[in-house]
Design a protein that fits this description.
This protein is mostly helical. It contains 15 helices and no strands.
Length: 455
């Protein structure tokens, strides 16, 4: 039987999507990230392919395409949920600072460790390998934090999104240093950033003004195609293209903020509400599909033998320890004492793998084992799982205590009402009994008066 025939591929892809949907249900109940289950599914598929199809195709190209599209959809999905208000300015700036400082500090320590322990590693290459390992995975975090308190949930959405954006910008800034002819330094990088923001704002307004006037029903995938086109062109121009996606999503979500006063005449509010609603659904569904196949294919490409290397385990554990130590210090400074479970929600995932495969050939080091990548992704995801489960139990206990306290208060109030009703009833009875003779006496006096007109 031909494993890679068209019908078999359709069957296999359909089963993977169904299993991914089932994994999401398990993840919501157990807090185990569905990403881990998808990677495990990929590993099992690889075992099956090794048995039944020794000549497996090369998935590296498809992994890069899926990762890029998935990243765009995940950032757009996150941006469509970010509400810009004055009271949220401080949380946004705080999460931005935490994401940036955490990224740079983690990359610096990881680069030192890689330079020290990996044979043939240069400091420049060490920074390139360390950067992907220092970026938070919004692909894992955003679907996983729905059960947290609203403030903590928003913090993780902001932080992971900014971490993705800053991480990509930092990575391509470092790759620019490999080619002195194209390296503009800090000044060139700043000009690049400002130019990207200007293009993003102009393009976002143009897209909104055009698309709200398109009458065709089939226009949302056209919109996504335009965004993918802008992203790809931006990458060709060495711009920070992810900022274009982020700004577009923010403008669509906060449309009234970006069309104030008299400019609102250019806005067809009802149509924009429909566009926002449909776009949100499509990005959510597309991100789910792309994320599913990305992590399954990543599982297929994993070389499991590298996980058994003690040196790989040592380097990975040192990097992981540095991640949480740095994160603890930053959160204590910016957040205070209430840093749980935020401290342990720092998984690596899609963007880590994507940038790892994007490291230029001249910076690649043969001594670097890909097992380090897998080790860090799995352990940080498991740590997040443990923290989320613990927080869920803590919240459950807290809710039980609140319910018990409410019940006790209700019982106390009922008892108080019952006790207060008895004296009132007795008092009413007593008043009735006391008033009865008076009524009788009054009636007798009236009768006497009626019989004695003289009086």
């Amino acid at each position: 039987m031909e494993i890679f025939s068209s019908y078999n591929l359709i069957i296999e892809a359909s089963i993977i999507v169904i299993l991914s949907f089932w994994f999401n249900g398990i993840a919501k109940k157990t807090n185990v990230p569905s990403v881990l289950m998808l990677i495990l599914l990929g590993i099992l598929i690889k075992v099956g392919l090794d048995i039944f199809a020794p000549s497996t195709p090369d998935f590296a190209g498809s992994l890069e395409i899926l990762g890029t599209v998935g990243l765009i959809m995940i950032v757009l999905e996150a941006a469509l949920e970010l509400e810009l208000k004055k009271e949220k300015l401080v949380p946004i700036l705080k999460s931005m600072a935490i994401a940036l400082i955490g990224l740079v500090a983690s990359a610096w320590v990881a680069a030192l460790l890689l330079f020290q322990f990996v044979d043939g590693m240069t400091m420049q290459s060490a920074w390139l390998y360390a950067t992907p390992l220092s970026i938070l995975s919004s692909a894992i975090i955003i679907p996983s934090v729905g059960g947290l308190a609203e403030a903590k949930k928003e913090f993780h959405i902001y932080e992971s999104t900014f971490s993705d954006i800053f991480g990509i910008m930092m990575f391509y800034f470092l790759t620019g240093g490999l080619n002195p002819a194209e390296d503009g330094g800090v000044v060139g990088f700043s000009i690049n950033l400002v130019l990207t923001i200007i293009i993003a704002i102009v393009a976002s307004y143009a897209i909104i003004l055009i698309f709200q006037r398109i009458k065709s029903q089939a226009k949302l995938f056209l919109l996504i195609a335009v965004l993918l086109l802008l992203y790809a062109i931006g990458k060709q121009m060495h711009l920070s293209s992810l900022i274009i996606i982020l700004i577009f999503g923010l403008i669509v979500k906060n449309i009234k903020l970006f069309f104030p006063g008299k400019t609102a005449i250019f806005l067809e509010e009802e149509k924009m509400k429909h566009i926002y609603h449909d776009l949100h659904i499509i990005t959510l569904e597309t991100a789910f599909i792309v994320r599913t196949f990305f992590f399954v294919i990543f599982g297929i490409t994993i070389v499991l033998s590298s996980l058994l290397d003690l040196k790989v385990a040592l380097i990975s554990l040192l990097i992981i320890a540095s991640i949480y130590i740095i994160r603890w210090a930053i959160l204590r400074i910016f957040v205070g004492k209430d840093i749980l479970p935020q401290l342990f929600i720092a998984p690596r995932g899609l963007i880590t793998v994507l940038l790892f495969y994007a490291i230029p050939a001249q910076a690649q080091i043969e001594g670097f084992e890909s097992g380090i990548l897998l080790f860090v992704i799995i352990v940080t995801s498991l740590v997040m799982t443990w923290a989320m489960i613990k927080d869920k139990r803590k919240m459950g206990t807290l809710l039980d205590e609140i319910d018990e306290e409410i019940m006790m208060r209700n019982e106390a109030e009922d008892a108080l009402n019952n006790n207060s009703d008895t004296p009132q009833v007795e008092e009413n009875i007593s008043q009735t009994e006391n008033s009865a003779p008076e009524s009788n006496q009054t009636q007798e006096d009236l009768d006497t008066k009626n019989n004695n007109p003289k009086e």
